[in-house]
Amino acid sequence: MTAEELRTLIESMRQIGNDTQTCEVKESARKISSSLVETLSAFSNGNGGTVILGISEQNGFTPVPEFNARAMQDAFISQCDKLTPIVRPVIEILPFEDTLVLCARIEEMLPRDKPCYITERGQYRGSYIRTGDGDMRLSSYEVDRLLEEHEQPNFDNDIVADATIDDLDQHLVESFIRRQRELHPRILGTKSDEDLLLDLHVLRQDENHHMRPTLAGIMALGTFPQKYYPRLNATFTAFPGTTKSERTSDGRRFLDTQTIIGPIPAMVADAIAAVARNTRNGAIIEGAFRKDVPDYPVAAVREALSNALMHRDYSPAARGSQVQVNLYADRLEILNPGGLFGAVTVRTLGQEGVSASRNQWLSNILETTSYPDGGYVVENRGTGYREIEDQLESALMSPPHPKDTIAYFSLTMDKRRITASELSSQSSENVDQAILDALRKRHSVSAKDLVGISGLSRTTINNHVKNLIEQGLIEPTEPARSPKQRYRIAPSDK
Predict the structure, then answer these.
(1) Mean pLDDT across 104-109
(2) ω into residue 85 within 30 of 0, thus cis?
């Protein structure tokens, strides 16, 4: 870090009034802050960060009088030695406003070294993660997920104790066996059906030598996996606004909701159908032809859903959590338990040659599991995220927004904005009616909500809102020019 970069960083914190996700300041006027080790653990377990000593947040991010940066350097290093693995930051002493401060850059640790924890407290009480501008102790579930990174998990290979081969879908199994023999005739061509299913971990023998489906086998090829794992399903919810707290004009929290069950191929197909019935198809004029385009490309949604169900956490601690498909007025969010695994990070998603499967047996099975509309559930070539990006780009949409935490991974797609050819066919009356329709489904909306829903410009929306207010059809909820301004249907007696 340079002195200029330090100045810019402090100025930004002065403006927002607190530390940031990636930077923590501590006074340490005469001794090291007792919470420093927690911050070192948090940055090491997260995405790294910077610690600055000699700056007072309480006094508006100003230098601490008579701070001795060089004396504090040895004390800082001694705190690093209190962690397992030991933290080795890059420490610099830099000038800032006529004094010297200590800056330490803490790098994110490799997955195989996490969790980084305060030695005397142990892994489960001494591991932290950065949240906002503070440090939070990791839950036991999160610590277990970090430890899981040290070796290949095998939870998808667990035997489903009470299930039998009759719990597998005969059509899916026959198609799976046929495809495997086509792909690998030399290895699998002469094996019996039972031996093939055993070798591919669709089945396993229990301690009594009974054939039982594995978790991977029943999730991919079962008739009703939720008979044994009721929460290994998916849920679909269409919310009326851009947050979960908004309600419709008649008080409903959801426009549509569905619990989706069945094997993974069926859940993917049913979730896609749920998204489709709650979104619209636009019409783009290309030359003399009219082309229907959905709010969200079907291929991108299918890939995201397949990835969520294939890569989710299937450990016992996560079997009570489902994959969530949340549709808002301006975006689609797909969320699964368990963060990214192995060498895959948000930065490397979609990069050639970077791929890792938390559930290796399930991934292998899904590669040759038939999808209801033809083909197979996944390609399993590490190209899924790239396919999502390509589909959105082809639809002239913004790239997806991935978010990775230890406990969950989410992928968000922004709603497709209306194109110029669609706008040309929108009369003023149609826009007014669309605004009124949106308000009838919700208690109130902001101009920002209407921009996100319609794809029209803020100026266009403001003009239409003004006209509807003048006609007495809608009314503002706040005084004029209020930053919290929203609009609602005007009472009929006005």
Answers:
(1) 93
(2) yes
Beta carbons within 10 angstroms of residue 294's beta carbon: 16
Sorted by sequence, the CB contacts under 8 Å of residue 3 that are 6+ apart come out as 94, 95, 96
Contacts of 294 (CB under 8 A, 6+ apart): 276, 279, 280, 281, 282, 416
Residues in the chain: 494
Determine how many CB atoms are found less than 10 A away from the CB of residue 158: 17
What beta strand segments (E) does 226-330 contain?
A: 234-238, 256-260, 281-286, 289-294, 323-327
Name, in order, each residue with C-beta under 8 angstroms of 372's C-beta and a sequence gap of 6 or more.
265, 266, 269
Q: Where are the extended beta strands (E) located within 264-400?
A: 281-286, 289-294, 323-327, 331-337
Among 92, 102, 10, 96, residue whose Cα is nearest residue 54: 102
* Residues 232/397, Cβ–Cβ less than 8 Å: no
List pLDDT tens digits, range 261-318. Answer: 999 999 999 999 999 999 887 655 544 444 567 889 999 999 999 999 999 999 999 9
**Amino acid identity, residue 241?**
G
Condensed to tens digits (0 to 9), the pLDDT of residues 217-255 reads 999 999 999 999 999 999 999 999 998 988 887 888 999
Question: How far apart, in whole angstroms, are the C-alpha atoms of residue 124 and residue 138?
Answer: 7
DSSP designation for 474: E
Is residue 134 a contact partner of residue 47, using CB atoms and an 8 Å limit?
Answer: no
How many Cβ atoms from other residues are within 10 Å of residue 415's Cβ? 21
List 409's β-bridge partners, or say none: 336, 404
What's the mean pLDDT when you consider all of the chain? 89
Through-space distance between the first and last CA atoms of the chain, rounded to whole angstroms: 62
CA distance 310 to 361: 10
- pLDDT for residue 414: 94
